[in-house]
Fold each of these.
Amino acid sequence: MSIQPRATYRMQLRAEFGFAAAAALVPYLAELGISHLYSSPILQAVPGSTHGYDVVDHAAISAELGGADGFATLVEALHAHGMGLLLDIVPNHMALGVPQNRWWWDVLKHGQVSRYARAFDVDWQPAEPRLAGKILLPALPDHYGRVLEAGALWLVEQDGELQIAHHQERFPIDPATIPWRDQEPDEAIAARRVTEINADPEALDALIGQQHWRLARWTASANDLGYRRFFDVDTLIGLRVEDANVYEATHELIREQVADGAVDGLRVDHPDGMRDPTGYFDRLRADVPHAWLLAEKILVPDEALPEAWPIDGTTGYDFANLALGLFVDPAGEAPLTDLYQAFTGETAPWADVARTSKLQVLRERLGSDLNRLAARFLAVCESDRRHRDFTRHELREALTEVLASFDVYRTYARPQVHALTDADARRIRAAVAGAREHRPDLDPGLFGFLEEILTLRSGGDLGGDLAMRFQQISGPTMAKGVEDTAFYRYHRLLALNEVGGDPGRFGRTVAEFHAWCSAASRRTMLAGTTHDTKRGEDVRARLALLSQLPVEWGAAVTRWSGLAEGHRTDGLPDRNAEYLLYQTLVGAWPISVERSVAFMHKAAHEAKRYTTWTAPNPRYDAALEAFVRGVLGDAAFSAEVAAFVDTLEDAARRTSLALLLLRLTAPGVPDVYRGSELWERSLVDPDNRRPVDFGVRRRLLDEVGPMTAADAWQRAGEGVAKLWLLRRVLALRSERPEAFAGSYQPLTVDGASGDRVVAFLRNGTLAVVVPRLVVGLSSWGDTALELPEGSWRDVLHDRQIDGHVSLSELLATFPVAVLERQ
């Protein structure tokens, strides 16, 4: 690639903020020190898309964003300022929007003979005989027959073809099923026949019954779908990108953009959903040999990126969780656990909450995927006389238990080349052992056979297919069970409830951080906030402080609960939701009533305990909203929260700046999420897609140039300290690229508070020093840093530093330090 990645800036494009708006910000980003604009997907998505992941045409640039001309203008602006483009691509799925998705429309119209039939992961011969050769479309609000008889389905002619209409939705009619297809074309006769069919429910039903699709009530998606979705999203269907023709069709435009120099790097969305991610990356790397390749791969703590993937790294969730863990005090674990259990009555450990949540989503939301997997397991058993007597129910239960026992998103067995790493084999064996322990009522031999299949020791070709499909389901199980369920149930310390994080692991050590950095790729991405994080980076930084003052936090919760009691309705909401609200207010304060209500509404529905998206509980929902509005409208309560947050603010700002400097200087490429160059206190999507005031940021960037460190810290309340540090260190990355591309070496900090400092050396020439666990730290005392021999300059203060420097001197006027060897 022509432009080496130094720092990225994530933009969320949409119709209201398209290519022209992004191009207008390029001068600002260049001045900030960004090397690459990191763009959300730009291919044609469904009309009105707010994120771009619902692609309907991989061969076209989004017209709503500005089309090909608008994209060219953006690229021209980037190149004029010496910047490049990192593009988010979506190869794993498409939106079902019809007729915008021409591929899917054609499959619905022509069935298995469609030229695009192999593009989607459809089971044309599912376990349910009545659905053989049909695609189930759970698009109706009630049973099909009732909707038909109510006149809510009708035949229309549109765009020169016959379609079935249901309100604004359309479904194609196969021309071969039109009753008058062999007659001479006559518009009047055709119109009359359409009118006659619409007037006769039996005739309309007969015509619909001949199609390659079957309309059904929306609830049927939970168990009877015959195709793979993206997670449990009914509007997104999985692509068979492992098929060479599908790959070519979905990547032709992307390849051209890279070859033309318009795109420098690719961020691949959700590779874990693919059948063979390793094969995919092999093919992609061959097509774009010099591009910067990143995978949105969610690694749990202590999990490594697959070595076989020919890519540059991940999109940074692993770093975000590791770095945040440095600021969580392990000493606070016991008191915060006691407080959480006493206040909420929730006593289950994290591992149990996660497992229970995964079991629930498997049975309630991923039932269709599980049923298709069980059908394949049945076929494997049927071909083996020693296992053919297991029932479908037993097989489904075994699969469910093993999926729920996985502690990673997926493994990467490749039956076609009989490849399975030792690490993956260990994870499979551990998951099977966990399932066997939880379900002693199931035959141990069944679990043993499943383990042999998943580790590629049994089952032949059928078993290999089962192993591959199992891996495609384990990722959604983790994502929906943990990220989108358990994280909204377990609230001991919300700072830990992050994508790729482990809420059961209370903090990370400095040694762990050093070990990770020593092994990290210098081209991996380092993230703080992303479009998928549950909370913004500064929200998490503030919440981490609760681990450092559990007694004070417990006292505050007790006071607040007393003030809030009068706002409850018949004992609702539950104490767990109340505890979630209090932490949310602390992390995001000041926050509006409407944002708080929206977040708590989403959190309650994601938790799936008292209310859900598919089965809402109006009584609970109303009580929860009334409680949120009530407490935030209570002057005494709001004053209490504001006062408590005020006691945290100095430490929170120091923690945020420490996290930022770690991200800017650790091995890798730092990312800045839109707007987070100032304090970033957004909550989960869609809160983190609110408009950003770039006018304020441009003005402040103009002001920070001549500022001293002391000046910047003096204006920390405005976010100036964060913007100043970001600009200063990104300038250093531009001036001294060799320092950030070189080695990583931990530095020793001596003294009583040495364990409260993270210090390291980059390429032997750049020293980085950040404090941690600063609550209650009144003085650094004898804590000092011993630098290697040489003359050192304090970059942030432009002063000379001796080889042995006290932390009191080094951090006297600004919370973090960067030292440059002269």
Note: The CA atoms of residues 184 and 540 lie 69 Å apart.
Amino acid sequence: MKNKNIIKTLMFILVACSSFAQVQKAQTLQIGNTSTNTTNSSAVLQIDDTERGLLVPRMTSTQRNAIASPANALLIFNTSNNSFEVFKTTCSCWVTVYDGGNTAAASLVNTPPSASNLNISGKFMVGQTATFTYEYSDAQNDAQGLTSIEWQRASTAAGGDPVTIAGANATTYTFQPGDLSTYVRARVFPRAATGVLNGVVATTGWTLVESGTTPTANNLVVTGTTSVGSVLTASYTFAGGTGTENTTPTTFGGTTSGTSYVWQSANSNSGDGINNVDLYGAFAYTKTYTPQNDLLGKFIRVSVRAKDSGGLQATNFVNSPWVGPLTATVESAPVVSNVTFSPAPAVALLHTASYTYYDANFDPEGTSTFQWYRANDASGAGAEAISGATSLTYTAGPADGNKFIGFGVTPKALTGTITGTEVRYFNPNMVLPVATFTFTASSMRQLPFYHASRAMNASNAIQVEVNVTAAGGMSISSPVVNGYSFAGNFTLATGTQWLTLTPTGTQTAYNSSGDLITLTGLGTTTETKSINIKHVRFGSAFTALFNGFNGTANVDNTLATYTTGEIFSNNSACTNSLISASTCPSGNTVTGVSGKVYPTVLINGQCWMKTNLDEIPSNYASVTPTSWLNTQIGHVGQHGYLNTAVTNGTAGWASTEPATNIGRLYQWSAAMNGATTERAQGACPQGWHVPSDCEWRYLFHGIGMSIAEQNTWFNSRGAVSQKLRSEGTGFTNSSGFSALNNGARWIDGTFSAITGTSSYWTSTQTIWNGGSAAFHMLNNWGPSIFTESWRYDRAISVRCLRD
């Protein structure tokens, strides 16, 4: 009740004061001991009391902050920090009032932040960048908060018609063409992170923006002697821009930071046949350039695009006049470099030397002379010329054992200064003595079978095994048989090891019994070994290429009737296409990269996997998705197990095989492991590959499919389908191929029924629908075989064929 009376009294006083102020504006309303105190004319309300004070509203910070739209100078007592606070609309903040003593400046405990020492560095020119700096301060050391900056443009030096430049809110600003002839300044709005937040806006003065002149390279010429090997320099006078050139060097590949340079050559001083000289293998993006031999007789010029220190660069290159033609340097003797020989030195090895000849005057090489040396150490100490060793090759003899051999070449030109200085090279390795070895009884390893008219190279290598009891050098050679022969030089450690021999020459004819060749090995003794090189016939029908190790018989799988290709293949015919023929490996199994063992079966001279591939392709190992739903995701190397739970595309890959030996389904790129060449290894084990379209057709033909049937995209082909399948309608699996119904995954993520088909990729690309590959489908219904092209992004099975 007492509180209510106090409130009523205060309300009465306030109303009375208001009324009194309206009627008697010059009078002061006085409350309290009016008889002893004089009225102060500066107050509208005067309270005189020596026993009681004025109690203002008391509240916490939370209650204070809940006041809606506080008025300027609103006074409260904050019980949270035990201080009087007044609201200021100029900063939208509450300011603490305290007893500052006798100095008027200390009447507030918190003051707003400020910005001082404003400055803009840089040129006020179009294309130039200016940088704005200032110093932030706060009397209470409140940290700087989200201080903001803006740039303004005005029409006059006094700041007429000022506008804020959109997007110009950083400490730097690059003057634009629209700023030309206007006045620009920067403004900063200091803001503290705590206390009084907003400070007073500070501004720079207005400055006129002038036009920036483009930097140029004036009076550009090429200086220096116009001869090969002499340094040419781009000489010019830099002008414009900031007046200072940016000379930061060009990085490798022509990326420029400063002024740009491009050197060019031409066949004449009119620019005929112009080319950037870096096309000749030179690094020619710098201020200087040294032409090499390939530009002898050419004309040279340089193009320069000037750039100033402010980052302004000329729009176009400026070209110097052509100079030249380039001549040779002064007459000098020829020289040689990169002198070396191989293999590592050993007794009985044939060593072949090489070197690089150069003549600064382009005099062609004449008859350079050679000499082999024998020395006591790798530095050539005590070197003596080896009698008769004056060619590029030298076979180390017993006298070279435990010595160091070297090769020297004296360059001789055909014209000009003829004779140069000899350069010698000594191999750092001591010459090993001759090896003691024997050929083992192991079979010779033959990588591919050979066929007539085949040029021999590294892909036709064979391997023979030797047992070395004393380390050293040895060589192997053979007579020429059927157009080719073998030779090799080896440095051998002790122990049993395989040596690889590469044939040279061209096999001239097919030999049904193979080529019998005697290898002669020269070490401490002369050893021989007879080998039989097996053949594959290169007939008019097709090429059978045998790539298996340890073959035991020659292969002649020529089928006289197999002469017409399939119209859906990108090969116009299978005639002369490569068809792998091979025995199956020992034990009739092959192990994949994953360690999984696959059974194999030999069908008409071809060794096939008997089950579907279940390997993760190394190039798509990370592509193991948990879902591929109704979205057409494209050809991205997907692979995984068919999901039998649903067939409408709402489920992802299964985590395990739906049935034994069904394997994975692969998009074509995953099946090929990223390769695109026909008969690539793909995801198959080493020595196996994804079969081509023609290799599948050869399989079909060998078990009864006629050429006429192959020339249709679909035929009942029931008997052949039955011979290949180990389940489904009417299967006999008489071929041993053992095809299972394995389903497929369509481009929309839908899984087809596992009970219907067996579909297999080939490695043969086609052109249907912008990118596809041939495939073959064994259908349970019919039964039948379906042959067509499918888009790469479908997923079906893979069967591998031995190389």
Note: DSSP finds six helices and 49 strands in the chain.
Amino acid sequence: MRASWNWLRSLLPALDVSAKDAADRLTMAGLEVEAITPYGRELGPIVVAEVQGVEPHPSRSGLRLVRVGPGGEAASQTVVCGAPNVPGPGGLVALAPLGTHLPAKGLTVGSRAIGGVVSEGMLCSESELGVGDEADGILVLPAGAARAGEKLAAWAPDLVDEVFDIGVTPNRADALGHLGLARELAALYGLEVRPPAFERPAAAGRAPIEVAVESPERCLYLGAAVVDGVRVGPSPLWLRARLARLGVRPINNVVDVTNLLTLLYGQPSHAYDLARLRGGRLEARRARAGERLTTLDSAERALDADDLVIADGAGPVGLAGVMGGESSEIRPDTTRVALECANFEPRGVRRTTRRHGLHTEGSHRFERGVDRTTAPLALEHGVALLAELAGGRLEGGVAAVSAPEPARPAIRLRSGRLDALLGVSVPWAEARDVLERLGCRVEAAGEAEARVTPPSWRADLGREEDLIEEVARVRGLDAIPGVLPPIWPQPPRAEGKLEAKVRQRALELGLSEALTYGFVSRRELEALGAPAPSVVLSKPLQEERSVMRTSLLPGLLEAVGRARRRGERSARLFCVGTRFLPPRAGSPLPTEERGFAAALAGPRASYLEKAVEHDVYDAKAVALELVERVSGHEARAEAYAAAERPSRLHPRAAGRVLVGGRAVGSFGLLHPSVVDALELGGALAVVELDLGALGELGERVPSARPVPRLPPVTRDVSVYVRDGVPAGEVEAAVREAAGELCAGVEIFDLFRGPGVPEGHHSLTFHVVYRDPAAAAGRPEGRTLTDAEVDERHRAVNEAVRARFGATLRS
């Protein structure tokens, strides 16, 4: 909401504070003034000048030499001007003398020769002065309106103003008009509001227009008056300037009056060309099947049965509370104007604006609720303004239809409750005075109790707490002392520590965190083979956010897919969050389990070599390294049995993460069918960890061992095994057969190809043997002999051959 400081002061003649002070008070009272913009400061040097002569430029077509001066015997000066509307001798114009700076155009007027003639100033348009949008011609003042030689700002002081940008909250619809803001300032400073005075039009017989309401639950008041003899033309300068600085484009004196009423009362109105209203009537009704309406923005709209329209005798002429129709708009030849003011039910207007994608100044106010008592007053004021500014006169009386207005119930207010809720003692007389200044009717109901009836313009006041809040904000929230409540000591909380540690370790591994929604779609969960959702939103904003996730992968994969669609092929993302699984037995609530997920897509980082796509081994490395860094326990990978593998993972590239025999997660490539179903644009690897299971393992404190002083003895085991034999099982057999002398086993070669029996592959393990005492750094440790190592190594070879049917490579 933009508000004119001049306009507010005209409604509060006793207000004697600066704009900055008023803005601070409004902000502290809950109506935040976000900015104060000065207007018209540049008008100081601008003078009113009289045109003394006009002649063509001697060498430039389209330009004229205008001789202007302050009148009388004073010296005149010549200005080169190309405006088409320069008046003849005796006309009054706005002159910017040499050296004047015009911020609206970012220029300084200087003496310069144009076609050999020196221009000694500049005749200014409204846009150049910053008082309006008109730029096609210079500003011409009405004859006799000012004295030549005086300052323009002295002749029209309203052109110099300060405009507030106010962030009005949705519950304060009363603050969407200057009268409502004036009431607020009056309550804050203890002043009286002087509403704008106007001569109420006298009713002379029956109105020549008929009004009707077919849907009284949607239209609470509909009034119309006919103004005859209207001359459509530009509005006076003060009105054009006021509208322009408040963000409203001036159009003509009739339409400008309706905009002025909206900005003054917060009550939208609309003007129709009566000659273009069929049947001489206005009716508020719901749209009928097949009806269409071309609105003032020249868009043809198909109407819905829920749309409330204003119709004449043949069809819709406006979307009620939103925008008028093009067929009945005010035109230059309009002479009879039907001025309409109405009050519409907010929710219906809100549905219409969303349905048609229209948001206007009128709908903005009706959606929040407009005071029902304002429409008749605004209608009368509009008729008076049309008579003053457009030369019209009221024809007949005012036609109106109004639904019964229910009485507002009184609200009980107790002094004890007031003090208890605010935490400070508020004098009861002061509290009552504050509410009365806000327009409430306060009736005593005991020594420290009252019955308070809010004013019609404060629909947001409905309970005792609302009244207490009003007392607090008008008195000043700074009057409530800050008291630090006692804090009871509690044992340290462990919640969130594991998640924070997982995030940090994931970042150390080169992953980037993605913040994903907890809401996903059923389709995504079904494609991933995740558990069925147990929490379903009754009114989701969209199908893609209709259930709560049972897997962290949908949001992560959505981020990867979006990146790929925008040309970013490589992604290393992770997220930490909660999965909402079906309730456990005896619990009505879903089971919330903490989890971690990562997605590796595109080529891994490479330098001076061909880029290689992320594969299952990258996922395995991330999973194992992350588990070991977080828990301190040794982790190992194990391939899934076919019956146990999750359906979302690739049959030949998937595994689980084990710690001490307990599964804590999984990794692998996504199944191609999942990639296609979710339109991910290519293969990618994923990691999933159960943080609950990981947390139950506890954190193992690392221990240090001395560096062995004696050298190890190493041997290699090279065998051919069948393709179905996992390398991990062979490694475990080697470790077991090597016994206590085994200090480590590492696979370093896997080969398929020439020289390897069909259906087999070659595995090579590096085995490190060391005396246990020497490995522990104890003094009794010794160096192993070749004989005892050879004996133990023969046992290893025999164990592998016997258990897996392996063939030793020579």
Note: The chain has 22 helices and 40 strands.
